[in-house]
Design brief:
Helix content: over 70%
CATH topology of the largest domain: MetI-like fold
CATH class of the largest domain: Mainly Alpha
Number of strands: 2
CATH superfamily of the largest domain: MetI-like
């Protein structure tokens, strides 16, 4: 073969290798770029789906609250709130009797003797209970009228929609057979409002009877119980003042005031009640779920951050090879345990253990011990900490590993100890990565479902933060738990269905906010270092 032919052959192979090389590079770029595009598309679809399913919630909720007002249920609920306050007053009085009965039983008195001592003021308790019956019966009667009006209105609306659907399908004969009644809610509201004078008269009788009886409170003969009886008198006077406020609210109430979209938004964001499948009125306030999630996550991070970061620092900077071989696999193995198994462990073992420990004599000085519940925010928080530790440990250890060895060698060469080098050089240098690890651990905790559903107690109310540390040992419900618990039972497209998607949107926004703050913190730290 001639020299010219050899050169042409070489050029052909060169161009082929170059061509194939470009193809491989493009293929790799396309592979990784395609993965990124798929991730973006999936995220966009999730976002679109959440907003699509949840967007109609506020419109439905506004109509629901507006009907609640126009049917008069809101008016009756003002009276009902007073009746429930009086029931609370009765429960406080009965708790005094229960405490006295316990004391007499512990003293060894016979049933007859204990009964004789209690009978000295039982007539007073029964008289207080009887005073509230007329008001509670009146409220129950008016509630039935208002709820009945609301149900009739909804039934008429459903029949009207059914008839319109038949007409759209061309089934005119069937549509003509559907009878729809026009329900005028104002007639029912006027009926309820006309009875306001009767309610005020019952209130006057209740106030007069209550004042008469608290003017002569019975004496039990036990200092602590007599103090509580005096406190009952103070609470009764406070209730009388509350009655005046109730009467003013009834006077000012009107069904003509329409409910705006802002009212529905505020009721969801700041609402303290999450009540579903109620025969009277459903409420979708996210505040008890949000505070429950925040409380559980806070407890988890209190334990997970020092343990996870501390373990990462120790394993990377101080542990020998044998310790590293032992510690790292065991910590990382925790992430392989299914969350449902950890939840079962919390129910069967850990929750019971915490409750038994709270009864130890050494802890008797704490007012909130012993605890009666085994499934609490503390139980769920500790188990979530166990699940977050591997995430924080692994990422924090990687961040520490990425610190150039020259930094450590220079510090040791200057005479610093290993501890000084770790605390003043290694940790500050890797701080951005450690913060990222903590935030990802928090995201793992806030998004966990099964453990909180099984171990948090699922009580839908805002924790009483006035109890201090005792708040940690209260049952709570969380945003993820409520979605898992209720989504499978709701009607597709209903207000309850869309409310759960709104809770999911809140979780989505929280996740975005956490990631945004992580980026801001890391960027700020990098700028300050630069």
């Amino acid at each position: 073969m001639t020299e010219e032919g050899e050169n042409n052959r070489y050029d052909l192979h060169s161009r082929r290798r170059q061509f194939l090389g470009i193809d491989k590079d493009q293929a790799l770029k396309g592979l990784f770029g395609g993965n990124a595009i798929v991730s973006i598309v999936v995220l966009a679809l999730i976002t679109f789906f959440l907003f699509k399913e949840g967007a109609a919630f506020f419109g439905q909720y506004r109509e629901n609250i507006d009907l609640y007002r126009r049917s008069g249920i809101e008016y009756v609920d003002i009276m009902k709130e007073q009746s429930e306050s009086y029931s609370e007053l009765n429960r406080y009085l009965n708790s005094i009797r229960s405490e006295h009965a316990t004391m007499l039983r512990e003293e060894g008195l016979s049933f007859a003797d204990a009964r004789a001592k209690l009978s000295g003021y039982e007539d007073f308790i029964y008289a207080i209970e009887d005073l509230g019956y007329p008001v509670s019966e009146y409220v129950l009667e008016m509630s039935e009228v208002a709820v009945g009006a609301r149900d009739m209105y909804e039934d008429a609306a459903n029949y009207r929609e059914h008839r319109e659907n038949l007409l759209e399908l061309g089934r005119d004969e069937e549509a003509a057979e559907v009878e729809v009644l026009d329900v005028d809610l104002s007639l029912f509201v006027d009926m309820i409002k006309e009875g306001e004078a009767d309610f005020l008269a019952l209130n006057d009788a209740l106030e007069a009877g209550l004042r008469e009886r608290i003017a002569d409170l019975p004496t039990i003969g036990v200092e602590s119980l007599d103090a509580k009886m005096q406190r009952f008198g103070e609470l009764a006077l406070m209730f009388i003042v509350e009655m005046e406020r109730t009467e003013q609210l009834l006077s000012d109430w009107t069904s003509e005031k329409r409910v705006g979209m802002f009212t529905a938004l505020a009721s969801f964001v700041f609402g303290e009640d999450w009540v579903t499948n109620s025969s009277i009125q459903d409420w979708y306030g996210i505040m008890p779920l949000f505070t429950g999630s925040l409380l559980v996550a806070s407890i988890a991070m209190v334990f997970a951050v020092p343990l996870g970061v501390g373990a990462a620092i120790y394993v990377n900077q101080f542990a020998n090879q044998k310790e590293q071989t032992l510690i790292k696999p065991y910590i990382e193995f925790i992430s392989a345990i299914p969350s449902v198994v950890i939840g079962f462990f919390g129910i069967a073992v850990f929750g019971q253990f915490v409750r038994e420990v709270s009864g130890w004599a050494i802890l008797s000085g704490f007012d909130f011990f012993p605890i009666s519940e085994r499934l609490t925010a503390f139980t769920a928080g500790c188990l979530l900490a166990l699940m977050a530790i591997p995430t924080i440990f692994t990422l924090a250890e990687d961040a520490i590993n990425n610190v150039p060895k020259s930094f450590k060698e220079a510090s040791l060469a200057m005479g610093a100890t290993r501890l000084q080098t770790t605390l003043r050089i290694i940790v500050p240098t890797s701080l951005s990565g450690i913060i990222s690890a903590i935030l990802l651990g928090f995201g793992r905790v806030i998004g966990e479902t099964m453990v909180v559903l099984l171990c948090a107690g699922n009580r839908i109310e805002i924790p009483d933060f006035t109890n201090g540390i005792g708040t940690f040992f209260e049952p709570v419900h969380t945003m993820t738990g409520i979605i898992a618990q209720e989504l499978g039972e709701v009607v597709n497209g209903s207000i309850h269905y869309r409310a759960l998607f709104m809770v999911g949107m809140v979780l989505f926004v929280i996740s975005l906010f956490i990631n945004y703050m992580a980026q801001k913190i890391v960027l700020k730290y990098q700028v300050s270092r630069g």
